[in-house]
Here is the input.
Amino acid sequence: MDPRLLLDLAVSAVALAAWFAAYGLVRVLTRPASPTPAPATMELGTEPPAVVSLLVSRWSVTEDAAESTLLDLAARGFVELRQPDDDPMRTTLHLPPTPPDDSGLRPYERRVLDRVRGLAVDGMVPLTALTFRDRAQAKTWNRRLRAQVVADARAAGLSRRRFGPTVTSLLTAAAVVVAVAIGIVVWHYSIWHQAEENLAIEAGTATFAALTAIAGLSPGERDTPLGRQVAARWLGVRDWLRGHEQFDELPPASVAIWDRYLSYGAAVGATRLTSTVLDLGMGDRRLLWSSYGGTWHRVRVRYPRFSARYGQTLPKLLLRAAISIAVGGFLLKVFGAAFDLVPTSADQAERAFAFVADGIVVVGLVLLVSGGHTLVRGVTDLVTERTVTGEVLWLEVWRTTGQGEDRPARPWLHYLAVDDGTGDRTTAWGLPSRWAGDCQDGDLVTIRVRPWTRRVVAFSVVGHGRSRRLVEPIGTDQTSNPVVERGGRAGSPQAGRRAAGLFTVDEVGQALGLPVRPAERLDLPGPLTAVQFRAAGDGRPVLAVATLSGVAAQWVWRLNSRGQELPGIGDEAYASGERAVLRVRDSIVLVRVLGDARDRTARLPWLLAQGTARLPAARDGG
Amino acid sequence: METGFILGAGGLFCLLVTVMIGWALAAYNRLVRRRNQVQASWAQIDVQLKRRYDLVPNLVETVKGYAAHERGTLEAVLAARSGAIAATAAPGVPARAGAEHALTQTLGRLLALAEAYPDLKANQNFAVLQGELARTEDKIAYARQFYNSAVQTYNTTTQSVPSNLIAGLGGFRPMDYFEALDGERATVQVRS
Here is the structure.
């Protein structure tokens, strides 16, 4: 090997190894402490269970945080847990008619309570129905809860960022040195290798970007002196609770007797049975809760996987049947004459051919019968189409197109599990993916289906479920910052803020399923203030938002308050085709989907729900 | 052949004996652990009860300042306190529970006096002591729950087959529950 190349490689390796060694050392030095437990005690402290869970889990937030928060809300009277029989899995959550004042709840406590309230039907929800049915939603919800718990712990001085600004700055400075070293190495290599292009700057930049990205990755939280002290005390409580073996077997409803001890027990991992029953993660798609018909009940759902007929269109099915019949007929025609179950020929080769021919004839027969069966059932499927109305229990991608080098896999068929109230078992339907974006779990849908192939051939959403109110924008957490109004001439600045401040760019993007540009104010006469959002790609308008109040609003409301009623959003709300309207006292909000986004109306109710929370503030501003 | 059989049977017997000894040791240790848990739980009750004894004289003094002529009630409280302290030396949980119950009853009557004396009710010191007493009563209630839970686990082990054999040999006797009497049950914040 050329010694110059050896030198270049050695310098690069040493530089990178030194940086990673420094990074590893920092990780070791900043790893969360393992405090020595204080003597076992039953004295509880003032920290909330979710923060306690963080402290006793070596400064990492586990699923115990959400579960213990729910139990704590029960201990404090915000919800009530009832177990009707010996099975803790049948525990139900009830909202008390006169709940305590919830203004002092912490953000993550409110998050958990809102989920319970959002899912409750007539003030009740089964405990195991709190699970999520959308992986992205579950992830987002839990990630934000973790962030809120960490923020609370930091505010109390119990936790801190594992890599502080000093450490991050040092790692970044070291990354600069390494990047320069790599750049010099590449420059040196290009010189002696007489390369046409010298990529020193690119190599240095890429190295710097990669190393700073690694340094910037959140390695989590670590202890503080106060945090270690408090954690030691809670570890003493954990030892106390674990010492009571009966505690391990307590069901969630025993919170009525054990009060906050049970919630703290869940936080420190001393309640095995309770933690098993409580789950705020992804639910089991095969056993789902449905509230269709007004009462909660469980439905077992089967998801067909292997049979070729499921989800197929009739033309494809008939084509397959025709091919099968044709091939089967051809094989029978060609080899039928040679069919001989008991070959009598003395010649070995003739006997072997006869056996092969017998096999081919059998295959031909099978193909013929199978093709005929598919043909008959396919046609029968067509004439036995029926309409089903029910609640969407599960929606998930079933089949996707093949993935190419420049072509990502695209879903073309979704599983759609619908409870139509006729039984406690069902098989998921095959929903063409173009309709999948129009509904979500909990929605009431009417579908036209072919029972044999389980394919949905017509689809409409007839009502929106409660879970839509719980949907959170997926992605960044910037949604809490409403869009900043842009310049414009019509109306007063305050009036403009009304419409512009109602929805964030993220929310609109989330609702329409496409990225959008910030709101632009529209020039409109009179008391109407409006903004529009344009698609980020081609710049075409995709959503118009108008707000109005006073007498004019009453007239506009009369004209637009029709279509599907959307209970629970503002004082009243309706959705009809491309538009949706919302009223809060004397103010109304009118949203209309425009242009290419016209078929993306499924999440308009959710969008309205987001604006409801801001409408009073926006109106006050005006 | 015969030697092999004897060796095999002997080996099996040794293995059986080893397993038996191992199980006996594990069962004994489990009993010890559970008995210790009962004692630790009792100690927690003891701490809370002593805290209550300490509060009583202050509370009586405060009430005396506003309702000195309620001597009967005040003396009953002090007598009940002395009885409860004396019961700490008595053997057995039921005797202790009875004495504590008497103290709880008389304290209840004492606190009820405040309703008839608005000045006493408005007294800052009385309010603090009353709050402290209520918190202590709560803690006593939970400590009693923990104690009874530990006793239940321990008693179940001492009475179950086959661990009752080890319990009998090791002198592990069933323990008494700290029974909640009617007046005390009311202090536990249990929602039905």
